[in-house]
Amino acid sequence: MSETSGQRRRRITIVDVAKHAGVSTASASKVLRNAYGASESMRARVQEAMEELGYRPYGPARGMRGRTFTIGVVVSDIENPFLSLLTDGLSSVIRPLSYELFVSPSGFQPLPQKAVVEAMIDHQMDGLVMVAPLMNAAEIEQIAMAIPLVVVGHHSRSHAFDTVAADDNLGAQIVVDHLVELGHRRIAFVMHADGRGDNSRPECHRLQGFELAMSRHGLEREAIVIDSRWNLDGGREAARQVAALNSPPTAVHAGADIVALGMMSELWEGGQSVPQAYSLVGYDNSRTSSLGPIRLTTVDQAGMEMGKRVGHLLVERIEGRTEARHDVLEPQLVIRGTTARIT
Amino acid sequence: MSETSGQRRRRITIVDVAKHAGVSTASASKVLRNAYGASESMRARVQEAMEELGYRPYGPARGMRGRTFTIGVVVSDIENPFLSLLTDGLSSVIRPLSYELFVSPSGFQPLPQKAVVEAMIDHQMDGLVMVAPLMNAAEIEQIAMAIPLVVVGHHSRSHAFDTVAADDNLGAQIVVDHLVELGHRRIAFVMHADGRGDNSRPECHRLQGFELAMSRHGLEREAIVIDSRWNLDGGREAARQVAALNSPPTAVHAGADIVALGMMSELWEGGQSVPQAYSLVGYDNSRTSSLGPIRLTTVDQAGMEMGKRVGHLLVERIEGRTEARHDVLEPQLVIRGTTARIT
DNA sequence: TTGAAAGCGCTAACAC
DNA sequence: GTGTTAGCGCTTTCAA
Question: Which residue is nearest to nucleotide D13 (CA to C1')?
Fold first, then answer.
């Protein structure tokens, strides 16, 4: 309705709204924030004025005094299928509360990641979500002092911030249980070698779960751990390592879907396939894993549900909660075509 | 160095810096912005003070007067392999200029997408990138009046904003040329039906390129167009449509990788495979397309290079350019395992 | 070349 | 319940 010429015109401010409604700016502000201390009639009048003028609160000005209504998500790689589920879940709880979501891909180096975090703090974001951060607990705690923080997929438990994580230990166990049930005994686990010894990282918990389940089945002597990295090329390399083994496994838990895909690629190019060469299990239930030609048996982490939890926890933090909460979700095995009964 | 207790302490402001350096805040501001009118000696002194105090400019305050040094990227779905390349390229040019990058996933509905755009404007971002926006040219022009804008993967050419796009028409042509060279004559193209008639959308250009190339080869009577949608399920449906054809094609250009993957899944589950059932080509050169079990022949759009172009154009716009620029990049065929010589 | 001071739009303390 | 006003940290005249 209020189209005008091509001229960029002055922003409508809260002062305009107040004037138009015949009230003070303070009152208009109260209505805007749904704050206590405004009569019903005033509330209605101000809201009408806002509508009529097409008023939109100006972020920087709000940021200078109070909230910006923005939540930042720091993530290494935007191309992570799990992330998309997480942000969907997160959006679904925070957008109705009129928070906006900003994702910043920060790469796999700790330094740029810290820079991104600082930038979000500098921009006065109201809360921060870090997904699988490349930092130690002390560094994360430093950040939590500056801004409400929820950490996803990281197992450090501090009183300074909240965490939401799947039970990675259990996830690895159910994989082993499934394989043992299919008759496998000699089973390999592909480890992300960088994470060795850092108990806050998911790979450590998955490794521990793997070893625990193997010994629970009396198979500790049959357990093989392959050191590689959790990416596509790491998967290819892991496949070569497995092929070079004297007494190879009949099943492999790749630790992550992307690793399993790398292994499949390598096998495929060598004229072999899965589960003929060996049974193979991933972890993440990424969208790719469900594709027809792939059909990877994997573990689902309920990313959407995690995103919702993250949203609730973060909003509580922003609104003042100070005790930490640490939510753990139960992972679920997704059986598809890459695991077969041993023959 | 300057760690203190757990107390959240007051932010270091430009006033602190100015005091510490024994200059006025105006001068400190000039140094901060690399603005004209500060002597070398003052510049040095102020910069030293900033270092010593660990000063970080406060976003909202800057935003109230000038730039926020933030660039927003609006995208339907964060889980788009092309996006990751694009943001990598974009980051590589804007981060050194101390702009920060914020990506906001807005979903596949026009309304939430507009809301995200408005939020970015409200937060006084310095520039905006829209990837394959779900809007018409008029709506996009409205946005361009409010904020410097570069549009990616959208073929409208306005004087109000810049665009960066691959030559989709050419991309579809090289696919047809490749298939014809392999001996195919009856060839199908899967169309994203929503985009029919909207000449600003990539699918229209790809369709036109397909038809152009087919008639160039004298095969207009052999061209089949399948109406579906460009997502995984749309691919599955397209595969069923192809299967139901009386005189089926020997090759299919799926229009997008994700569609090809859906088709492959459907075929696979029906016990068929590619290229045995028919040759299949995607579009995007997504990471998934290169995986061993997939090895999809596809078209590469040079996402990283596009991101860099976007960055340069946007920074130029922010710095005052007003004439529009429309960059077109040449796509490249990537031949892999899903296309075969006809037997 | 440098500095003093006004003011961006909003919130919060306090007065009425 | 409502209005007045100071001030957040920065940039930008404009005067010195």
Answer: B26
Read off the pLDDT of residues B113-133 as tens digits, 9 standing for 90 and up: 999 999 999 999 999 999 989
Q: CB atoms < 10 A from the CB of A143, how many?
A: 22
Nearest nucleotide (CA of A55 to C1')? C9
**A202-216 vs A168-181: helix crossing angle, rounded to 10:** 40
Please check whether residue B46 is in contact with residue B57, taking contact to mean a CB–CB distance below 8 angstroms: no
Put simply, whether A11 touches B (Cβ < 8 Å) is: no
- Please check whether strand C approaches the CB of A26 to within 7 Å: yes
CB contacts of A102 in chain B (<8 Å) are: 72, 102-104
Q: How far is the CA of B47 from the C1' of C11 (A)?
A: 33
Of A37-41, A120-124, B166-170, B214-218, minimum mean pLDDT range: A37-41
Q: What would the pLDDT profile of A304-326 be if each residue is shown by its tens digit?
A: 999 999 999 999 999 989 999 99
pTM assigned to the model: 0.87
Helix spans in chain B (H)? 14-21, 25-32, 40-53, 59-65, 81-94, 110-122, 137-146, 168-181, 202-216, 232-243, 257-269, 303-318
The Cα of A113 is separated from the nearest Cα of chain B by a number of Å equal to: 12
- Note the pLDDT tens digit of each residue in A106-124: 988 888 899 999 999 999 9
